[in-house]
Amino acid sequence: MIYLDNAATSWPKPPQVIQAMTDILKRGCANPGRSAHAMARQTEDAVLNVREAVAKFFNIKDPLRIAFMPNTTYALNAAIYGVITEGSVVATTAMEHNSVLRPLKTLESRGIIGLETVEPDRYGRISVQSIKKVLRKGIDLFCMTVSSNVTGAIMPVTEAGRICRELGITFLVDAAQGAGVIPIDVERMNIDMLAFPGHKGLLGPQGTAGLYVREGIKIKPFIQGGTGSFSDRLFQPEVFPDILESGTLNVPGIVGLGKGISFISETGIEHIRLKKKKLLTMLFEALSKEENITVFSPGPEQNSGIFAFLVHHMDSSEVSYILDRKFGICTRSGFHCAPLAHRALGTSDSGLVRISPGYFNNETEIELTIEAIRSIARRKL
Question: Which Gene Ontology molecular-function terms are recorded (predicted)?
Answer without folding.
Answer: cysteine desulfurase activity
